[in-house]
Amino acid sequence: MVMSPNVQPGASDPSGADLPPSPTKGQLRTEAWRFVIVGIINTFVDLGVLNLLIQATHTGEKGLHFMLIKTTSFMVAVMNSYYLNRSWTFRATGRHKSLVRSGSQFLIVSLIGAVVNVGTASYVATFVSPVSGLEKLWPSVAALVGTAGSFIWNFIGYKYIVFTARGHAAYQ
Questions:
Q1: Residue 167 falls within a domain, yes or no?
Q2: I want to staple 124 with a disulfide (CB 3.0 to 4.6 A). Which of 33, 61, 141, 142 is the partner?
Q3: Where are the beta strands (DSSP E) in the chain?
Q4: Count of the separate structural domains present in the chain
Q5: Which residues does 34 contact at the CB level (< 8 Å), separation at least 6?
């Protein structure tokens, strides 16, 4: 169900359920900045866990061991991201979905975000001609473009699919 712009906050949809209030521009801006901050924190969590595990095991700098350790660090960062986005960025409390349901949705949105990120970055790095003078930096530029694409996807997915009140998902 998509909310109609004519529906007043606190009104009921045809099923009789209360609709959540429409977000204000200020609220969206605050959530977007919090989302950026959580992303930065999660980058440090991911890299910290990765390097801690590499140091603790004296392995994992490449190959299968790296892949296993990187998967572990990614999952720790995803769990941290879920907790921070649920409790702080989007302040999902009260009548919201169960932890299992929202956690599963969060993981699915995150995995789609990873595909968007890697796919977009790979496309730019492979098929878009580098801007003159940026040839050596082009892989980083491509990665930033991928990050921007996944940022947009993840923000929309988390806000309107994962951390929305039960029965009020934007795409029912």
A1: yes
A2: 142
A3: none
A4: 2
A5: 88, 89
CB under 8 Å to 70, separation ≥6 — which residues?
50, 60
Rounded CA gap, 170 and 127, in Å?
Answer: 34
Please count the other Cβ atoms lying within 10 Å of the Cβ belonging to residue 37: 13
Per the listing, tokens 């999952």 go with 75
Please check whether residue 5 lies inside any domain of the structure. no
The token duo for 56 is 């603790």
- Judge contact between 154 and 84, C-beta under 8 A: no
Per DSSP, which regions of 3-156 are E strands? none
What's the whole-model pTM score? 0.72
Range(s) of the domain holding residue 61: 25-91
Per-residue pLDDT of 10-65, as tens digits, reads 444 455 545 455 668 889 999 999 999 999 999 999 989 989 999 999 987 778 88
Q: What is the DSSP letter of 19?
A: P
